[in-house]
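$ fold --in a.seq
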Amino acid sequence: MTLRAEFRCLSGCPGGYPLTQTIYRCPTCNGLLDVWHDVQALRDMHDAKGWRDLFDRRRCWGDFPLSSGVWSKHEWVAPELPVEHIVSTGEGHTTLLKAEGLGRDIGLPNLRIKMCGNTHTGSFKDLGMTVLVSMVKHAIAQGANIKAVGCASTGDTSAALAAYGATAQVPVVVLLPKGKVSTAQLVQPIASGAKVLALDTDFDGCMAIIQELANEGVLYLANSLNALRIEGQKTVMIEICQELGWRAPDWVVLPSGNLGNGYAMYRGLAMMRELGLIDRMPRLCMAQAERANPLYRAYAAGETEVAAVKAEPTLASAIQIGNPVSAPRALRALEATDGVVAQASEQALSDIAARADRTGLYVCPHTAVALACAEQLAADGTMKPDDEVVVISTANGLKFTEFKVRYHEAALADHGVTATHQNPPLELPAELGAVREAISA
């Protein structure tokens, strides 16, 4: 049976375009594109039980690359992509952790955290990049004149693109905002051999330039404006339901910057619901930093469009985005899931990161934004104590050790943060008595 997928206009303009075509916006309305799947063909291929069984079998016994978290769902992602052109690093299948200690602390005893940072480059960006780079490899094999793949990034996107580009031996160009990316994030694309350009601007400035370069054909655009990224990221939601025994949680909370990830969660849910793998949709909460909150402002004001803002410096640097390209996608996802938008202050995200770490976690500041928003929603009664809540952890906390060090050194005053849960080392003389006294104190 032949399965099909193609680019189509998110707003419904006529026309379909191959996934190998270099196209980022609808030629008719200049709006965002989506990836359309022939759901009837998928339904004809397997019933719900058949798909569940196939995905479970690949997860446990599948051959690489169809054993990866993304490519175990090959037919739902890029069905016409030949397996030999898949570029994979074994992404996905990350832990859905029962965060019992923190859950009790914030009033959500059924809290789980999807540890998407425990993947090859340390962030959930791998899930979208494996699809995009695989399709680039396939397009080049078919004769496409793609000289390089490029992105604007606040860190994690560049790391993922550079790693997958190196795996596929495709040249990569990265535009980063100078001085606004952690050392651990900056070194990743450098180590992978990408051409890294640090620009004296913010992410939105980098994004404007990379789009112009893509429009001129200088490079192929790898940011989430490209709908291929969504196809990989949606598998996070499929994995979560799979890990819960093929049922949906009550809530999914995720850090939100450029807003493609929220739509990706909805896309995964919608396909599972349409094909009968789950029987209901959870509610989405898109969590933003208070200093970079265009979606929250639009939501709070009841607006149907998201106006750009000037994003201020935030410790959650990966979501320091004032002009999110996927805003229309996010609004659609919120409407379809009866979703909400919340925001977290610098103090709130810093404190809950420290509290989470004291329960055995080591969360990045962006995951902390989502956790702080979940705590708010539990406190105001939007989330109930018996709700099953899944927070998407988007990156590995080890990428943000500087943030942790500065917190425990009480050195975040420039962000208005008081280290409420500071735990600095005690400096003592090398004397048994002094050590015994410190332990007993």
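$ fold --in b.seq
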Amino acid sequence: MDRADVVIVGAGHGGAQCAIALRQNGFTGSIAMIGRESEPPYERPPLSKEYFAREKTFDRLYIRPPQFWGEKQIELHLGIAVDAVDPAAKVLTLSDGSQFGYCQLVWATGGDPRKLTCPGADLSGVHAVRTREDCDRLMGEINGGVNNIVVIGGGYIGLEAAAVLTTLGCKVTLLEALPRVLARVAGPELSAFYEKEHRDHGVDLRTGVGVEELVGEGRVSGVKLVDGTVIPADAVIVGIGIVAAVEPLVAAGATGGNGVAVDSQCRTSLPDIFAIGDCAAFACDWAGGTTMRVESVQNANDQASCVAKAICGDAQPYHAFPWFWSNQYDLKLQTAGLSVGYDATVLRGDPAARAFSVIYLKQGRMIALDCVNMVKDYVQGRKLVEAGALPDPAKLADAAVPLKELMPA
């Protein structure tokens, strides 16, 4: 049976960064990384952006050159999944029936695209945008003449895909069940701005609509809404979130549900097992201690570094500041902090000028901001969020006042 001192399950951002950080922190033991995909670790955000738009070739997405892992004595076991965990014996059962032993385990599996549950969800031509294989399959269909595409889901993945597809000349319809896009992560000001942008670029964007079924014989040919309307579709992209990939851990007894629960050092309830990234639910300091999963590259990388330090004997509580970004058309959105529980917003700048910020307040305290083509606001504003500032809303709204001038003494 193969075994390693540290086994990392998941070869995405978090898993790769954990292996890198272990070596950077002086860990000399054996490290093995097990990943379901056949590719060495690569960046995922460009899949729905530069790679999908054919602006970057795949070789430019590798987190490290493929030879790096061997040079650092990090074993890659790719194209294989973990089906079961025996925490008492410290043994993993893999999808090929083999077993793999560990001394310490890092679970960094991320999540799987949430699937539609309506009739027709399993038709050919229905796609997710999560892996290279997903994108290559869809790109191949577009190259073959697929042009009329329905995107289901008005979150960042759906909006980014719609932007790229429109740029490629496809006819795009975007459907969101909630009354506005980005409703779960942003205020109405940002939602309204992006809805207008997409419509101005030719996207048929519809909010407050439900999908009843996907229609077609063998391959999808349309999307039927709950009101009976049928929207023709050569292909469908489903971007309605992810489901944390934690089943083997929970089956082994780990506390969890929507993700696996971890403590302030990313330890699960099982001995010598950590969890990081999209699949880890933790009490977030930047959301008032709310237990949540944070789906971002920043969170995956910073939790990976936290775990690497703990394994190397320098355990510290996780307190990394959350930040995010999204590129759509020529718009660069940068987000600092988490707007969970905000009770007021301040609009700074003019959305019509396509450069503005939305600032989120909770009991007067600045907890987050979204900046569209406003890099200075982002750089200066995140320091205000980190400082827990209580700025004057009137000054916040005055774009002529640099945010750095509102820093508390």
